[in-house]
Amino acid sequence: MPALRAWPDVTPAALVRLSVRACGQPAQPSPATWQHGRVTAATHSTLFPQVPDSADAVLDGLDPEQREVATALHGPVCVLAGAGTGKTRAITHRIAYGVRAGVLHPSSVLAVTFTNRAAGEMRGRLRQLGAAGVQARTFHSAALRQLQYFWPKAIGGSLPRLVDRKIQLVADAAAACRIRLDRGELRDVTAEIEWSKVTQTVPADYAPAAAKAGRESPRDPAEIAQLYAAYEDVKRERSVIDFEDVLLLTVAVLQDRHDIAEQIRAQYQHFVVDEYQDVSPLQQRLLDLWLGERDSLCVVGDASQTIYSFTGATPDHLLDFRTRHPGATVVKLVRDYRSTPQVVHLANGLLAQARGRAADHRLELVSQRAPGPEPVYAEYTDEPTEAEGAARRIRELIDSGVPASEIAILFRTNAQSETYEQALADAAVPYQLRGAERFFDRPEVRKASIALRGAARFGGNDSLLDDVVDLPSQVRAVLSGEGWTTQPPAGSGAVRERWESLAALVNLAQDFAAAKPGATLADLVAELDERANAQHAPTVQGVTLASLHSAKGLEWDVVFLVGVAEGMMPITYAKTDEQIEEERRLLYVGVTRAREHLHVSWALSRSPGGRPSRRPSRFLDGLRPGSTATTGRTAAGGAGGIERGIPGTRGSAPKRAQRVPARCRVCGRTLTDPGEMKLMRCDDCPSDMNEGLYERLREWRADQARGSGQPAFCVFTDRTLMAIAESAPDDERELARIPGVGMRKLTRYGADVLAICAGQSPAESTDQD
């Protein structure tokens, strides 16, 4: 393994270029089973749902397209899913159905996505569907796990330390190069290094690669290349790696060690990739190596939600999927269960004037909800006044009964947050800046969990619990010792955030007790442990403040889109057509976060008394009242539906036998019991077996067993004989379809069995032959 053992002397990007060294080594549902009114909201589920009691029950409530996704268990499958159409619902039900039907083994499935929150949500949903044990991870998490396991075998020793943040290393590299960088430049140079690595660009190739990609370098490209090379030197000297190295080194190991690649492929037989429009070239390379020559792959994405191209993400892999996999099944989800028709109309209108390849493949959403209020457009003299207006309206909504957790303020840059934090604090409105994916890592939550666990074990000796009987009261009593009070503290800041975390646990206990009467404190602790493992966080009560980029994948009843003015949306530095279109898609993502109420606002100047030189974003032209539509072509929207693949176009790779869900030939239920699968019917469904034929087969089997000196079941089991007697096959093809009749037994016993089924004796069959 000299190439990989020399890893400290080459950049990780170069490792990807290592050559591989030879080692020598489902049935369609009846239309009557689905109605709009029975489909639950795409991203909603009850807090503690009952696990479906069968594989078929997993499919209940899915619309026709979602059901098609769920039952298309053999790849390649491409799901084009518009915002709010239930993509997570469709793919988690697909995995769960495959597991519950016995087609997929939980440990053989790897579902990958892009954030810990999304992976945690997926694990939580799979657990609720009875498919625990499926691996749902981010690309980095899955790669790191494999790298840690195989590093001693591939390289030797332990894996170098992984650094969480690279900005200090970049600063040290700049100092070594005698280049002074301010805080903003440090951040920009770090971003360029990250982009280079995920696009597999080595330092020497940075300048031409950046020019080809149309990137505006924060400094002279030659300086960026110099800093990039120095950064790699610093890492090698300190024996550390960064997050991009995790992917690069995993790719290098899988390329260079065929035996390790085959070991991983033997473990994972089926792959699901969420948010496929966001994969980088490096992530696609890793996915290809995981797959090998197989095509058991389901990808899900929406080109109209491509908003991370600055990090190296590209929708090309999604848009080219049918080209790479001509046999793929493509399912389009366009039924929007999240947003009202008014919100959906605005979202569709935003993309109607879009240009570019992603726009050519946009999906025309169709709202499935009842009509709601029209979006509200508001113009303010300056940004502080805009923030005060939003805070005032939010205060009114909360006073009218809207939960603070169902309201969000979304902005283009994080720098806009401070003005809104102050305005909300002045209006006595609780808010949160942190995402739910880190909830269980918060110190106050960890301490509260320890306290609850202790109370569950030794509560009989805790005086706090002497006078409480029900579960919510017990939790309130325990958490009162950790700082929870019946009334929130005044103001904002860290004290308020700690209280909100504890209040979320109190609310969870109330919901848990209501859903599961008789539940104990120990039951709640077990639920918290499972939620922590799945990163399935409870809701924190507070208005969410978030950038548009960080809001991806989230939703609220009420959304305030603020600062929607030229220079901010699109952002000033968006110059090229591609950059402008990405800004349009970013606003589209913001609009589609709203379920019912949408407020869009902008300010004419930044500061009070400033010159009112700003104007509303061009993206609102023709959509907001009193504006004129921008001229230009209108993109054609795509309708929902299913496109079947072209049979026999998988290439030269040998086609492996595929398992499909076995279904009862009487009632149509999915069969999971091996005995029922042999009969191809439920045990309690009526049998049409020919009793006389069954007895003749039993007599013949006894003769065969005596002649060969083996037990009768070694010839055919009772279940297999029953299946033969029920189906009475006419030829070898029909006989071979019966479970338990393999090729060896077909060759040895096929002629005899077919003769008996035809009313002849085996001897007569032989004489006639």
From TrEMBL:
Ranges of residues in domain UvrD-like helicase ATP-binding: 60-340
Pfam families assigned to the protein according to its UniProt record, in alphabetical order: HRDC, UvrD-helicase, UvrD_C
Biased composition range(s): Low complexity: 625-634
Residue intervals of the HRDC domain: 687-767
Domain of life: Bacteria
GO cellular component: cytosol; DNA helicase complex
Residues binding ATP: A81, G82, A83, G84, T85, G86, K87, T88
Catalysed reactions, semicolon-separated: ATP + H2O = ADP + phosphate + H(+); Couples ATP hydrolysis with the unwinding of duplex DNA by translocating in the 3'-5' direction
PROSITE patterns, per database record: HRDC, UVRD_HELICASE_ATP_BIND, UVRD_HELICASE_CTER
Name used for this protein in its record: ATP-dependent DNA helicase UvrD2
Lineage: Bacteria, Bacillati, Actinomycetota, Actinomycetes, Kitasatosporales
